[in-house]
Amino acid sequence: MKAIVIKLSAESDKEKISVRQEVKTIEAISAYGIESSYQSIKDNPQILGEKLSLLSTEYDLMLIIGSEILIDRSLIFDILQNHYFLEHFSIAFVNEQKQVIRLFNGEKNSDSLKSIYLLPNVSNVEDQLFNESIRAILQDFMTWNASSQMKCLNFLMDNKSSFQEIILSQMKSFKVKKYLIMEDEGIMQLILFDSINTTNFIDQMSQLFPQNYLASGINFSLEEWLVRRLSQRRQTISTAESITAGLVSSRLSMVSGASQVLKGGMVVYQSIMKDVLLGIDNQLTIGDHVYSHACAKAMAEAIQTKTQSDFGLSLTGVAGPGEDMGHPAGQVFIGIAQKGHEVESYKYQFNFKDRNQVRMTACRQALLLLAQKILSNKCS
What we know:
With 380 residues, the chain is an alpha/beta fold.
């Protein structure tokens, strides 16, 4: 078997990694008869994801240490959302008490099991947590073959502090001691490791948070949830996209069964196309008026009316990298029209240097808005 220790670091930290640390790590793993290696990767989720995919065919065991993105759980969230890693790897997390908590057990049998271990509080391989955890990790890797007891609940984020406080109080009443809370772009995952009555707990959560609770399951996908819920309600949606140029409808169409709910959409990237295809008042598309609540509302209402959908979603804004007509890069207006209800619009400021990050985040936010509408009493 082969193992690799992946040290996450900023570019400026790469020079600081000492040979002594590397040798010590390799010796610790080699004591278990496992061939080992060592690598430093820039502290970037996308780069790490690509690297892990490349290394996964070569290594049976990966130890990932030393990163802010491990501490804030964003990397763990990304890995648990990646179907490839869920199918091929057992994934474990080492908490502050040096306990190895298995997050997911993969699809492999015990003879061919591969594992990823995440150590969020380790800054280098000489850290006390690493030294005290390495033996437990290797023993766990060599002997573990039990099924996962993990349960996962997914919520739309609301008022972050009060929302978490209520959830924490509920877990206390259910005597939940082992858990992990992860947040990513408007979605919160609550992962439970205790053997509790999950059905009662989910019932309690869904009653307390009827406009927040989405579904249970680690393989949660916002798009899949939207398509399934709209299909259950026999409701449809259409999109009018400028800044995102079809990203929203594309994400929905990736889900099997999307044809039952997604009627279609229009990419109205240039201002004139908003007039020609949507037929909205050209006064709303002259100059900087195209970046406004009024324009977003008109676009959403037009696409909803033209397609006779239950929902119409619109997006207009400035992707960047620079400002446009006095509007800063990252400023986005999202409109949502629901049949029989007043049209609404929302303004956001996404502060990314990369224009495509703005576009992808705007797309995600539009889907979150749709989820909020579906969960709200207005959709009953």
